[in-house]
Design goal:
Elements: E1 8-10, E2 15-19, E3 32-36, E4 41-45, H1 53-65, E5 69-74, H2 80-83, H3 86-92, E6 101-103, E7 122-123, E8 129-132, E9 135-141, E10 150-154, E11 159-163, H4 177-189, E12 194-197, H5 206-230, H6 238-245, H7 254-270, E13 274-276, E14 284-286
Parallel strand pairs: 4-5, 5-6, 6-7, 11-12
Antiparallel strand pairs: 1-2, 2-3, 3-4, 8-9, 9-10, 10-11, 13-14
Length: 288
């Protein structure tokens, strides 16, 4: 079990974590939001969930304690536990100008509405740089968890804000495993000295953690490939694979496991290692 996170904590001379006060099975102790910079106006990364007054109080406390205001808001991806607090911040925390709220666009692009506020997102792109006093943040497109996911590199510390691509404990969920694995490999190349994750404690061994994430997925992938290759003449439904690979897992969890297996199968198909039949009931088979 990870150590209990403080609601407001200075993690470095440039980074203050404000806990989203929204604990749960998917959010762990809550969404980590971060004030970044050293000056009288700082960048806020992520905003927690809507209607969590404790979070707004913690954020106000942090702004007062560090004698600062919010320069702009950046959200790492569209999920509600990262974007949901935008409206409450805009309504409850005064700013001398309208808040500018930034993110990467959805892919494929679609209209996005910010709940309870008039302003629209200002869209960023991969490689953009955002500056504030004491901090330079570089945007890194890391799809997989979602199609619009970003990580941010704090250049002064070689520190990575990983959003939900890498968590402080456990593993994350994803929409597209092929993209997700490529994103992990890109993050590995950065050789970051520390990771500030979207949930969970600070990661002080980034390289080992990313290797662990990659290895975890590769082991599952090898199990699937071995099964398909060992029984080369047979086509398998996803649930048939689940019943073999997850045979020690209680049956009520098999549906969730099937979702996981399907993501692996789609990745392997993209890589040309397997193919699927066009049966109404989809089946999968190894390529020669």
């Amino acid at each position: 079990m990870a150590a209990v996170l403080k609601r407001v904590e200075q993690l470095s001379s440039r980074v203050v974590r404000v806990l989203g006060c929204n604990p749960g099975p998917m959010t762990l102790q809550g969404t980590n939001t971060y004030l970044v910079g050293t000056g009288s106006r700082r960048i806020l990364i992520d905003t927690g969930e809507p209607a969590v007054p404790e979070y707004i109080n913690c954020l106000k406390q942090a702004l007062t304690e560090f004698n600062t205001a919010i320069q702009e808001i950046i959200v790492t991806h569209w999920h509600r536990d990262h974007t949901g607090g935008i409206g409450d911040i805009c309504k409850n925390i005064d700013n001398d100008t309208t808040y500018c709220i930034k993110k990467l666009p959805r892919n494929p692009q679609r209209e996005e509405i910010i709940e309870d506020v008039e302003q629209q997102y200002v869209y960023l792109k991969d490689g953009d740089v955002i500056k504030t006093e004491g901090a330079t943040l570089r945007i890194i497109y890391t799809p997989g968890h979602t199609d619009d996911h970003m990580a941010l590199l704090l250049e002064e510390e070689n520190a990575l804000f990983s959003g939900d691509c890498i968590l402080g404990e456990g593993t994350t969920v994803f929409e597209d495993l092929y993209d997700y694995m490529n994103s992990l490999k890109e993050l590995l190349k950065l050789k970051a000295s520390v990771i500030y994750p979207g949930h969970g404690p600070v990661i002080h061994n980034p390289e080992a953690k990313i290797h662990q994430y990659i290895s975890h997925r590769n082991i599952r992938e090898e199990q699937i490939l071995r099964l398909l290759r060992d029984d080369f003449d047979k086509s398998f439904r996803a649930m048939e694979l689940v019943k073999i690979i997850y045979k020690s897992v209680p049956e009520h969890l098999h549906k969730m496991a099937e979702h996981n297996i399907l993501l692996h199968l789609r990745k392997l198909e993209k890589e040309g290692k397997i193919f699927s039949s066009t049966d109404p009931d989809k089946k999968w088979k190894a390529n020669l």
